[in-house]
Design goal:
CATH class of the domain at 29-121 in chain A: Alpha Beta
Largest sheet of chain A: 4 strands, antiparallel
Shape of chain A: globular
Radius of gyration of chain A: 21 Å
Order of helices and strands of chain A: HEHEEHHEH
Number of strands of chain A: 4
Helix content of chain A: 40-55%
Oligomer: homodimer
């Protein structure tokens, strides 16, 4: 039985690492996708909606690394908010956290928020994401 | 103290109705937004992902009334799928249910799906939705 010599092992390990790197790069990007689930105090709902709307708009308009911030509310329970957030990379997200508009949103809404769950997601079809959103951009009001 | 005469009440009620109608029309559209939460059998996951990817692509490419179908999975539990679905109207959605690609997806995945919850949503900022998605379309891979 032939076993790889000890000297071969680091080379095999390196090859393994290279394969992984290639596959991650081929997969598209460092894109960060998540859904934030926010439950808001009922009395503060109107103010929260105005604040999150302003923050989403500023982020999309001012930050190149913010691919999308799309806030929605549940029709049956309007105090339950879900925000689809997509950042170009973790660095873009870290930089978003330091912007004046995000900090204003965070401090303004701190007392309005009952609970916050951040669900990290990944796109199933990252190859045709831009095609999907281009269509949405041309069809949405 | 002056009270509106009984004869005035129907007129006031009618004015109220007209105001509501105007506000709903000004709000934009009949857009239908929802998040489907699908839990998939672990053994069928790979096949499910391929099937939903194909279905989303066909819907976005072939149906003018499909604004977006964007499938994601939870990073921590990849069998938990969430699909952001946006249709131009309820009619567009009803017509989507009759397409060959949707029917193929539905019958192929029936046994793969453990649970399905449909959460009806509404965009918080329907005025700038197209702006949000245009940005996403230009920035996503």
């Amino acid at each position: 039985m032939i076993r790889p010599a000890n000297t071969l092992r680091p080379i095999l390990a390196l090859l393994g690492t290279l394969c992984c790197t290639v596959s991650v790069q081929a997969n598209g990007s460092d894109l960060m996708v998540r859904i934030a689930e926010v439950e808001v105090q009922e009395a503060a709902l109107e103010q929260y909606l105005a604040t999150v709307k302003e923050e989403a708009k500023a982020s999309v308009n001012l930050e190149p690394g913010v691919v999308s911030i799309f806030p929605m509310y549940e029709k049956a329970s309007p105090t339950k908010i879900r925000i689809l957030e997509i950042y170009a990379s973790r660095e873009a997200y870290e930089s978003h956290l330091k912007t004046a508009h995000f900090l204003k949103y965070k401090t303004t809404t701190l007392e309005m928020v009952k609970s916050l769950v951040l669900v990290e997601m990944d796109a199933i079809d990252s190859e045709t994401m831009s095609q999907i959103f281009k269509k949405a951009g041309s069809k949405a009001p």
